[in-house]
Write a structure and sequence with these properties.
two-stranded antiparallel ribbon, elongated, Arc Repressor Mutant, subunit A, 5 strands, mainly alpha, 211 residues
Length: 211
């Protein structure tokens, strides 16, 4: 049996009915709130709360816990450095991404921060870029000096031999980038192996206890 098409009059009638229903719903909601208030005052229980909608039930996001938070970025730096240190050689960015499951941007930012801190050395450009871990300075309180074969050991030996060395001279002698040498020297200063000193117009590094 075919259904008769809805006429304009039917449409207007439906809209009017819906308007009346919505008005009655608003009135009933107001009466329910009033009854709840009276019930609570008389020692009764409030009506069950309405089921949360999608907008009200969605948990609020907390700052500092997402993949782009400082803590997550720091964790990725540790992961990248540990991977490079375990590999022991020069590693391409793609190999780091594949091994750690990180995106291109995450690896780029992590290696950039590590390079600025002097913990990673970069060689090559673009598709030929490679990264290699720089040996850490021994922990504070350790009596063991930096190994002579590491970059830290070579920088310390250079400072001890020359007695006064500028940053530019260390960069030239080591062939490393400025950020790497700054990071190494910063670690040696924290370990009280060397200190900054000004001689005339120059600022340089001297070995602690040296002449």
């Amino acid at each position: 049996m075919a259904t008769a098409p809805m006429t304009t009059g039917d449409t207007h009638g439906t809209a009017a009915v819906l308007e009346v229903v919505e008005t009655q719903r608003k009135i009933l909601r107001g009466e329910l709130r009033t009854l709840d208030t009276i019930a609570v005052k008389l020692g009764g229980e409030q009506a069950e709360a309405p089921v949360p909608t999608l907008a009200t039930s969605r948990p609020k996001s907390r700052k500092g816990t997402g993949v782009n938070s400082p803590a997550a970025a720091k964790k990725r730096q540790h992961q990248v450095y540990d991977h490079l240190a375990a590999t022991g050689g020069e590693v391409a960015p793609k190999a780091i991404r594949d091994a750690l499951g990180m995106s291109e941007g995450q690896v780029r930012k992590a290696t950039q921060r590590l390079e600025e801190a002097g913990r990673v050395r970069r060689t090559g450009e673009r598709q030929h870029t490679r990264y290699q871990a720089v040996a850490d300075v021994p922990p504070a309180g350790s009596e063991e000096p930096p190994a002579a074969g590491t970059l830290t050991g070579r920088v310390l030996a250079e400072i001890q031999e020359r007695r006064f060395v500028t940053l530019a001279e260390l960069i030239e002698a080591s062939g490393e980038q400025e950020g790497v040498i700054r990071g190494v020297c910063g670690g040696l200063i924290r370990e009280e192996e060397v200190q900054m000193e000004r001689r005339g117009a120059k600022r340089g590094y001297v070995a602690v206890g040296g002449a």
